Structure formats: structure tokens, C-alpha cells
Amino acid sequence: MRLIQAIAALMIVASAGSSLAQQTQKYKAALSRLPLNAVLQRTVAGKGAATAELAGQRLTITGTFAGLTSAATTANVRMSPVTGVVGPVLFPLTVTQDVAGTVSGSVELSPSQVEALAKSKLYIQIQSKAAPDGNLWGWLFIEEKR
Question: Does residue 135 lie within any of the structural domains?
Fold first, then answer.
């Protein structure tokens, strides 16, 4: 009898772990500069990439960037009204304060923020000394399963 209970308990744990794995969604973003006016084109440069993983409501972001013309100062995740349009800050990210480095962070999203993420309305923005209103942007898109 105890053997049957132990096997049943293991099956429940394995099933719970399996359903948690199914609730994880991966995202990716290409970090690049937005088309800007000719004056800012000379001071804004660089590129990068980031990945994000949503496990339940916890969003974890990691990425790299390089080629800025001045040191990065801050980075954050923002929510746009529609993909490609800038929007307000949701939460800060940790960023290397240099012309190349990493960006990272983790936060619990609200249900409406999870929905916005699924609709590609969340994006990463890195500010720099030369571009305090934004140097690199990258909208988070669902990573296709292969």
C-alpha cells in the first residue's frame, strides 16, 4: 500500500513539474536604433540582442549590446500602446555603463502586462550619455518553437 502511495505522489510531482515547464514562454528582441532625425543619427549607434523568459508571471531578461558612441546610462522595460511606438517605463533593468556590455533584470508582471507581452507591446530601451531619450530599442517577440 505504501509503495502505491509513493508512486502516486511521484506521479503528481512529475505532472506538476511538467505543467510548469509548459507555462514557460521564451521571447527575443533585436536591439537597434530607431530612425531618428539627421542630427541624432551621428550620436546614436550600436546594436544588441536580448532574450526573455516568462515563467508564470516572472519575466527574466538577459542581453548584450555594443557599438554605442557613448556609455549606456540606464535601461528599462517599457510598454507601448502598439508595437513600434514608444511608451512609458514599466521597470528598470541593470545595464553596464559602457559602450558595450550587458542588460538584465527580473520582475513579476501583472496579468495585463503579461497580456501586453504576448501582444509584443513590451520593449527594452537603453539610454546613453549621447542619447538620454533612448539609444537602443528592442520589442520582445515570442520565440518560435522549432
Answer: yes
Domain-embedded: residue 7: no
| Inside any domain, residue 94 | yes
What's the predicted TM-score (pTM) here? 0.81
pLDDT per position as a tens digit, 107-116: 999 999 999 9
Report the C-alpha gap between 92 and 124 in whole angstroms: 10
What is the per-residue pLDDT for 15? 45
Q: Is 2 exposed, middle or buried (0-12, 13-18, 19+ CB in 10 A)?
A: exposed
Q: How far apart are CA 40 and CA 132, in angstroms?
A: 11
Q: How many domains does the chain have?
A: 1
- Whether residue 12 is predicted with pLDDT greater than 50 in this model: the reply is no
Query: How far apart, in whole angstroms, are the C-alpha atoms of residue 86 and residue 6?
Result: 54
